[in-house]
Structures are given as structure tokens and as C-alpha cells.
């Protein structure tokens, strides 16, 4: 079946949806390529990235369309006509077949691109502009288009001349809404690909820039401007994105997050320098960037703190700044603080959370107090997954082993303390989990282990017939 | 002498002065560990604003971790502690347990952990962190022999520590000591608990700590016990002879000598 075709093929009378065998019969030397829907979608999204240079509000209209909300942007490009021309020319130069139109509503603009590309409709002129177009331009689906034709309604103007309840009764409410939108009565909202950033600054270049120094300079200048505009409203940036638009249409976006609102351009500068240095695939300027955009996609109101008298606040600021820098370099998930959890299962008792977002919470966290004059009851090193050990036998069934093998080394037990019994949480578990008996033990070398037996002898470690089954032993942690 | 020349000279003198100050002031800042003999060998305690290395064999890793935690506990003084480790070391040696640290008397609230993907980023991160004077100490935990940690890298860390006053502690597990710019170098093993009292009080962290290198004093080997409640080291309780009270804030000997002379 034909999925897409070019103009030459269309002139031969082929159309989308025609079986391939029929098409081959009509034109034996037809060149055929497999359709790759995923690649098409990727290309469309790349084009959408490129279109970000015109407006931050770009929405996908699959399979082949894009909506650009250019409200308030057109004058930056010399008016609507100039913008349309620039866009179409630039895309055509890259080998795409483009048809574009500008209208007051998205549906009307889409209708125009199908039959009258290049049209610019002023506000209020929608109905007039599309009345002469055939009904197929509405893109309402095969059944409705055929139905309209059969009813003798050849153009959109014909359909519009009927009263809307007749249309609704015959073709459904969705079609009548579509028609109303196309005629400029109300509009369907477009759903932009990215949320609108709070602040955007950008710099375009007459000549593409390619050197690192120029890029760094541009970024720091943009940062100055961004900070200045945020400062007026008392805001600081929590998430920043730098987008580099290459001359050949490729767009690369780099994001930096911070733990607290940034209000200094030097900080932004440094974070981006760290990030750019540490990129796994470095920024490739190719033939150069012709535009750089810096946007703050998340901002917060800055609370001014008294700094001079309280050294502690200053220290916390510096720590947060250090965490931001490390996170920009190696990734925010790699810098963590720890939050105690309300559970007694050892491996779940601590949650490691990204330090950028949870530093304040971690500083306030309540940890269980240690029992004074007791040796450590919890190991310093804990295995996420307890490691199985081989225990030849235990003298008393529910006692500690006399020796065991862990990581291919035999350890002779010299001292034992325990058991400490930890039952699993029946209200959380799925499937049967066994109660654990933990022992603190020391071997002949002075190494101290935290081992446990999985299951209770008399009640849990028995099979269906009531016979005892051998227990599994694990090393869960190591004491200093 | 022209004015420009004089000012250039003044700038240079200022620079030299600053270098000297960073070398002397920070170096005189020492923290007593609590173990009298070890403190004596260390001229009063562990030097701040310097790098200290702790080595151990592969399976003695937890003893070395405990010792480093103890050192960090002594030098940080309510300031945050940045602990940098390699990502895979959770599998190899077990994750550092915050409850375990709390049991040793340290405060888990002030520990920020960095899980680096490789040695280069771990080194880079520690150099950055050592330059940040909001921190009390930086622990860099490396497992196995590494080519990347050479004299140059070690010098970088030392310079960063000297300029900021932050103490750098290197935990080198399953590695052999190599020349470096560290102030002290230790070899750690776990020590047996004192004999007797099978069901009695045992299990306090005990270390067989060997001081392999000491820039400003003699070396030695001691059995040190970590007192979780007092958050300091002490002599082993196995020895029956009376132990002098731990000198927590005893004046720096170096200063006294200099004043006397």
C-alpha cells in the first residue's frame, strides 16, 4: 500500500492508500521504498526543534504537520509575510516539500496549507478565504468527505451555507466543531511540545560562530541579560536550558539544574562551563551556530537572607553551590543525601535522594539516636543484596554457625552476639518473606560480620510434610 | 626606586607571605585523635588542610572505612562531610550505611555522597570539593590500583586542601602504597576484640593502625579503639595499665617550642 508519494507520482494518478500491485500496474518503473514511520516522526520532531527559532510554541500535528503559534513573534522577522517566506525557503533549501499558511485559527491555517499554501489570512477573513476550497481540504476523514460530495456539497462554502444543526445531525458534532474552527468561530488549542519557559533570551548571528571562546562569551552575555530581566521581578532560575541552533538545522539543547534559585550570571556561566566540559558527546558546531538561546524554564522567587552575621547560612550557600557544580558535571542523581525511612528492614531504612532537591530536608532529618555505651549495633558497610554464605552446620538448630565460607574464604567464628530478630513487614510484602535472625560475629582475624539466617526453625523452615529444610545464611553487612 | 617597581615588589612580597601563611597557619592546626602515643607521633594530632591516606587489603576494607570515618569525625567539627566513591564499590565493599555511621557517633545529616562513574571524575570532583571551605572534610574512596591517581593528582589535591583549609582523607582499598604528597599514610587492619568476655562487651571498633609515613614525626603501629560515645580514639582497653585522660584540647607542641626558642 502506498504510504506517501511525491509530486511526479501524484501526476501519474497514484494516491495514498492505493495497493502497491495496482500502482505497479499503472507505472511499472515505480521506485518503492519501505515506509519508516518512526524515522518520519523523528524527522518531524527535528524540524519542530528547528522551528523553535521562530516561536517557543511549536506543536506537532502528526503525521506530517506542525503548528506554530506566532502570536507576537512575527514582527521580529519583519512581519508575517517575511516570516512565512523565510521559513518556507529555509526548509525547501534543506530538501523538504513545504506548504505553509497563516490564519487566525490553527484549523483554518491547516485547511489552507492543503489547497492554498502561502496564503495569509487576516483576522476575521477565515470564512471568506476557505469558502472556495474543496471539502477534502478540511481533512475530516474519507467517509465524511465522500458523504459531503454525495450530498452535493463540493466546497467548504457550500457546507458553511447549511445550518449547523443539519450538519451535526448528518455528520456528527466533531465535524461541525471542526468546520466552525476552520471558519474562524472559536479555536482548538494547540498543545506545544515544550512548556513555555518563564524567561527567554537569545542571540542571532549574521555569521555563524563555531569557536569555544565565542560560545562561552555569548552564553555569559545572555546570562547577564537573563539575570537582569529576572532580577526586576525578584526571581531566580532553578532550571536553565541553552539551545544551540546549527546552520544546517540541527538543534542541541543542554540543561542545567540548580538546588536553589540562581541570581548571579557568574554562577550560570560556571555551571554551563562545567556541563559543556563534561559532555559525553561534545557540542559539535559543524559549520557553526547561527543562534543561541538561553531560557529559564523553572524560576522561583528569591528570598533575600541576612548573610553577613550568620556564617552558617553562608556555609550552606557554598555547599549548595558546590553540589550544583558537581551535579552539572556528573549528573544530579550522582550527588545524594540520605533520608531515614520509617522501617526496620535494614536495606530499606535509608533513602538516597538527589542532594540538589533534598539538602534542606536531609539537614533537618531525625535519625534514631544510638544507645549510649553500646558497641555499634548496625554495620558500617551494608550490602544492598545480602550475600549468601555457606554454613556447614550449626551446633544448635537456631544458633549461630561455627564457621562459614564467604567469597571463597573460610571464616572461623570466635565471638557471637545475637540473635536480633527482624520480622518482615506483612502489610507491605507480596509473597512470603521469612523472618531473619541476625548475629553479630567476629572471626579469628578480627573481622566483624553481620550475618542472618533466613527463616525460623520451628515454624518457617519446614516443608509441607512438616520436615525441616536447610536454612539459608547471608552476610548482610560488615562492622568496622 | 620607581613607584611601579616598588609596587611590583610589594605584590610579590604579599604573594610570598600568603604562601608562607597557608603553609604554616594551617599546618599548625591539628586535631588530637585521642590516642596519646599516636598524637605524640603526629606532633599533637592529625593536621588539617592536608591529605591523609589510609590503605588496606581488600577484605580489611571495613576496618579502614571505620578508621577514616573516625578521622573524619574528629576533623569535621559540625561541618558537612563530602564522601566521594566509585559507583561499583557498593557491590564490592557494600554501601556506606548511614545507620552504621550514626552508631559510630557521626551525624548522617551532614554527609553528602557523590557516586562517581570513574576515577577521573572522582578525582576532579574531590579537587573541586577540597577547594570549598564550607566543607569539614572530603573523603575520596578508591578501590583497587589506579593509574590515574599519580603524583600530579596527589599534588593537586594537596594544594587545594592547603588553600582552603579542608582536610582530605583518601581511603585506598585493595591498593599498595605509592609515593604521594600526603601528610600521613596509614595501613589498616582489623584488630581482635580483647580476650575473655565472650558474651560481654565486645564489638567496639578496634583498629590495628600502622603509620607508614609521617612528614613531621616518627612512624609507629598502635592498636586503637574508637569510642563511639565520645567520638574519639583511645588506647586499647585490653591493656590493664591505667590510661591517661584523653587530651582533647591540648596545646600544640610546635607552637610552644617555637615560643620557647
Please describe the structure with a list of short key phrases separated by commas or semicolons.
heterodimer; A: alpha+beta; Dna Ligase, domain 1; four-stranded antiparallel sheet; 32% helix; elongated; B: 261 residues; Rossmann fold; nine-stranded mixed sheet; two-stranded antiparallel sheet; 12 strands; 25% strand; disordered C terminus; P-loop_NTPase (chain B); ImuA (chain B)
For the report, how would you describe the main beta sheet of chain B?
A: 9 strands, mixed
The CATH topology of chain B turns out to be Rossmann fold
Q: What is the string of helix and strand elements of chain A?
A: HHHEEHHHHHHHEHEEHEHEEHEEEEEE
What is the CA-CA span between the terminal residues of chain B?
37 Å
Number of helices of chain B: 8
Instruction: Give the structural class of chain B.
Output: alpha/beta
Helix content of chain B: 25-40%
Number of strands of chain B: 12
Q: What is the CA-CA span between the terminal residues of chain A?
A: 70 Å
**Total domain modules of chain B:** 1
The ordered string of helix (H) and strand (E) elements of chain B is HEHEEHEHEHEHEHEEEEEH
Q: Give the name of the CATH superfamily of chain B.
A: P-loop containing nucleotide triphosphate hydrolases
**Poorly predicted runs of chain B:** 239-248, 250-261
Oligomer: heterodimer
User: What is the C-alpha radius of gyration of chain A, as a whole number of Å?
Assistant: 34 Å
CATH class of chain B: Alpha Beta
Number of domains of chain A: 3
Radius of gyration of chain B: 20 Å
Amino acid at each position: 500500500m502506498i504510504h506517501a508519494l511525491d509530486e511526479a507520482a501524484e501526476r501519474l494518478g497514484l494516491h495514498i492508500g492505493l495497493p502497491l500491485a495496482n500502482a505497479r500496474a499503472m507505472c511499472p518503473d515505480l521506485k518503492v521504498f519501505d515506509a519508516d514511520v518512526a524515522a518520519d516522526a523523528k524527522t518531524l520532531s527535528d524540524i519542530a526543534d528547528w522551528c523553535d527559532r521562530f516561536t517557543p510554541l511549536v506543536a506537532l500535528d502528526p503525521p506530517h504537520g506542525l503548528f506554530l503559534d506566532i502570536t507576537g513573534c512575527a514582527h521580529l522577522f519583519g512581519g508575517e509575510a517575511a516570516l512565512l517566506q523565510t521559513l518556507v525557503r529555509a526548509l525547501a533549501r534543506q530538501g523538504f516539500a513545504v506548504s505553509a499558511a497563516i490564519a487566525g485559527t490553527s484549523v483554518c491555517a491547516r485547511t489552507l496549507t492543503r489547497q492554498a499554501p502561502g496564503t495569509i489570512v487576516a483576522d476575521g477573513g477565515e470564512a471568506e478565504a476557505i469558502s472556495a476550497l474543496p471539502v477534502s481540504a478540511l481533512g475530516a476523514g474519507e467517509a465524511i468527505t465522500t458523504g459531503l460530495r454525495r450530498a452535493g456539497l463540493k466546497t467548504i462554502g457550500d457546507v458553511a451555507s447549511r445550518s449547523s444543526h443539519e450538519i451535526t445531525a448528518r455528520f456528527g458534532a466533531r465535524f461541525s466543531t471542526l468546520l466552525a474552527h476552520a471558519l474562524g468561530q472559536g479555536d482548538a488549542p494547540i498543545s506545544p511540545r515544550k512548556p513555555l519557559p518563564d524567561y527567554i533570551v537569545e542571540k542571532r548571528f549574521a555569521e555563524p560562530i563555531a569557536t569555544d571562546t565565542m560560545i562561552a562569551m555569548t552564553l555569559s552575555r545572555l546570562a547577564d541579560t537573563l539575570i537582569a530581566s529576572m532580577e526586576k521581578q525578584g526571581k531566580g532560575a532553578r532550571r536553565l536550558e541553552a539551545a544551540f541552533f546549527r546552520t544546517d538545522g540541527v538543534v542541541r539543547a543542554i540543561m542545567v539544574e540548580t538546588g536553589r534559585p540562581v541570581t548571579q550570571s557568574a554562577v550560570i556561566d560556571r555551571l554551563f562551563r562545567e556541563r559543556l566540559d563534561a559532555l559525553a558527546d561534545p557540542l559539535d558546531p559543524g559549520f557553526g551556530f547561527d543562534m543561541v538561546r538561553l531560557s529559564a524554564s523553572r524560576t522561583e522567587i528569591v528570598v533575600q537572607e541576612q548573610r553577613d552575621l550568620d556564617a552558617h547560612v553562608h556555609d550552606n550557600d557554598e555547599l549548595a553551590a558546590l553540589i550544583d557544580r558537581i551535579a552539572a558535571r556528573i549528573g544530579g542523581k550522582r550527588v545524594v543525601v540520605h533520608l531515614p525511612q520509617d522501617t526496620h528492614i535494614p536495606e530499606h531504612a535509608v533513602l538516597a535522594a538527589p542532594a540538589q532537591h533534598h539538602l534542606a530536608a536531609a539537614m533537618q532529618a531525625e535519625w534514631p539516636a544510638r544507645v549510649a555505651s553500646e558497641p555499634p549495633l548496625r554495620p558500617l558497610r551494608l550490602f544492598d543484596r545480602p550475600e549468601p554464605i555457606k554454613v556447614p552446620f550449626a551446633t544448635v538448630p537456631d544458633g549461630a554457625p561455627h564457621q562459614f565460607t564467604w567469597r571463597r574464604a573460610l571464616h572461623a567464628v570466635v565471638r557471637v552476639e545475637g540473635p536480633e530478630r527482624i520480622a518482615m513487614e506483612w502489610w507491605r510484602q507480596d509473597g512470603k518473606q521469612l523472618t531473619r535472625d541476625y548475629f553479630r560475629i567476629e572471626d579469628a582475624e578480627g573481622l566483624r560480620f553481620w550475618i542472618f539466617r533466613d527463616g525460623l526453625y520451628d515454624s518457617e523452615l519446614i516443608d509441607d510434610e512438616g520436615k525441616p529444610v536447610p536454612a539459608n545464611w547471608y552476610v548482610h553487612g560488615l562492622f568496622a | 626606586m620607581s613607584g611601579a617597581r616598588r609596587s611590583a615588589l610589594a605584590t610579590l612580597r604579599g604573594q610570598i607571605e600568603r604562601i608562607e601563611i597557608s603553609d604554616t597557619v594551617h599546618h599548625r592546626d591539628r586535631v588530637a585523635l585521642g590516642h596519646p602515643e599516636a598524637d605524640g607521633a603526629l606532633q599533637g594530632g592529625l593536621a588539617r588542610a592536608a591529605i591523609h591516606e589510609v590503605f588496606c587489603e581488600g577484605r580489611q576494607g571495613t576496618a579502614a572505612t571505620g578508621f577514616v570515618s573516625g578521622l573524619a569525625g574528629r576533623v569535621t567539627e559540625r561541618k558537612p562531610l563530602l564522601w566521594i566513591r566509585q559507583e561499583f564499590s557498593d557491590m564490592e565493599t557494600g554501601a556506606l550505611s548511614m545507620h552504621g555511621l550514626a552508631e559510630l557517633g557521626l551525624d548522617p545529616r551532614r554527609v553528602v555522597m557523590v557516586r562517581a562513574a570513574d576515577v577521573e571524575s572522582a578525582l576532579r570532583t574531590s579537587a573541586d570539593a577540597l577547594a570549598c571551605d564550607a566543607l569539614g572534610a572530603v573523603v575520596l574512596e578508591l578501590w583497587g590500583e589506579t593509574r590515574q591517581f599519580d603524583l600530579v593528582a596527589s599534588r593537586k589535591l594537596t594544594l587545594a586542601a592547603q588553600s582552603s583549609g579542608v582536610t582530605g582523607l583518601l581511603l585506598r582499598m585493595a591498593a599498595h602504597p605509592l609515593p604521594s604528597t600526603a601528610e600521613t599514610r596509614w595501613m589498616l587492619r582489623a584488630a581482635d576484640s580483647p580476650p575473655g568476655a565472650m558474651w560481654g562487651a565486645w564489638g567496639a571498633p578496634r583498629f590495628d593502625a600502622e603509620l607508614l609515613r609521617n612528614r613531621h614525626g616518627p612512624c609507629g603501629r598502635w592498636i586503637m579503639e574508637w569510642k563511639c560515645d565520645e567520638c574519639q580514639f583511645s588506647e586499647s582497653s585490653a591493656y590493664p595499665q591505667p590510661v591517661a585522660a584523653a587530651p582533647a584540647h591540648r596545646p600544640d607542641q610546635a607552637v610552644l617550642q617555637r615560643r620557647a626558642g
